[in-house]
Amino acid sequence: MPWSRRARPEEHAPRHTPGRVVPAAMLFVGVDLSARRGFDVAVLDDERRVCELWRAATLDLLSAGLAAYAVPRASPMLIVAVDAPQAPSDFPLRRVEVRAGLPVPPPPGRFARYRVCDYELARRGIGLYLLPEPGAAPPAWMALGFATFRCMQACHNLRVPRDAADHAATLLEVYPYAGFVTLLGGRPPRKTTRAGRAMRVEALRRAGLRGVPDADLTHDAVDALCAAFTAWAWRHGLGCALGRPDEGLIVLPVPAGTLKERYGDGA
């Protein structure tokens, strides 16, 4: 089925028509969020075809949009990947035994406000936003991310991975920038530039995505597509996860054996 654009920002809600839902065993949903604009959503089928791109202004509308995929005689399993941290952390990396147990222990006194997954990306040259200190208020977008994970678990019966080999998990934390870096083998130009967007779209097409539109595609939608592809790769045993399950794994769309120890500019 060709992709369709639903619900522009000003329309505030996804226009689901149950009869148009792909009757597939699984749908892979990528969610890119912002406290200001809401949620950009990309949906792939099991053949990596882009089924739909849409936007929801609120978490309630996102949840309702996902619920609308459950239609009679065609109720696919949803694998949802969200571009946001899943929960606050008490930073186990601050404990001596946790640091010592890592393949590459961090230098003393550094990375104290990093989750293990954050550290594993940062030491490879992939920067990211950090969670607040325990008890401190998170940024609005991060708080929305926490709420999104809670909603997906409570309202849609999805679950995060129990360990780095739990490919049956249905709710994933992803980071599209890291996804593109690992797919490309290096850091691409900023996603807000024409070159950066074009490089990301080409990476998705090389990864097997079909029906990626040539026009009317924002960098937020591109991130949502990467999140959806990461969900597909994880489910098919082609992705990997970094971190500790007790504070959150970040899933990447490449096998663990292909990860570089350091990524530089010039993808």
Structure description:
The protein has helices spanning 59-67, 96-100, 116-122, 140-156, 176-184, 194-206, 219-235, and strands at residues 4-6, 26-34, 38-44, 50-56, 77-83, 171-174, 240-244, 248-252. By secondary structure, the protein is of the alpha/beta class. The chain has one domain. The chain has an eight-stranded mixed sheet. A hairpin with a 5-residue loop joins β3 (38-44) and β4 (50-56). It starts with a strand and ends in a 15-residue tail after the last strand.
How is the secondary structure organized here?
Layout (H helix, E strand, L loop, with lengths): L3 E3 L19 E9 L3 E7 L5 E7 L2 H9 L9 E7 L12 H5 L15 H7 L17 H17 L14 E4 L1 H9 L9 H13 L12 H17 L4 E5 L3 E5 L15
Parallel strand pairs: 1-4, 2-5, 5-6, 6-8
Antiparallel strand pairs: 2-3, 3-4, 7-8
Helix pairs in contact: 1-4, 5-7, 6-7
Q: By helix and strand content, what is the structural category?
A: alpha/beta
- In total, the number of strands is 8
| Strand line-up of the largest beta sheet | 1-4-3-2-5-6-8-7
Shape: globular
N-to-C order of helices and strands? EEEEHEHHHEHHHEE
Distance between the termini: 32 Å
Q: List low-pLDDT spans.
A: 7-23
* C-alpha-based Rg, rounded: 18 Å
Q: What profile does the largest beta sheet have?
A: 8 strands, mixed
Helix share bin: 25-40%
Count every helix, treating DSSP H or I runs of 4 or more residues as helices.
Answer: 7
Mean pLDDT: 90
Beta-sheet strand percentage?
15-25%
> What's the number of domains?
1
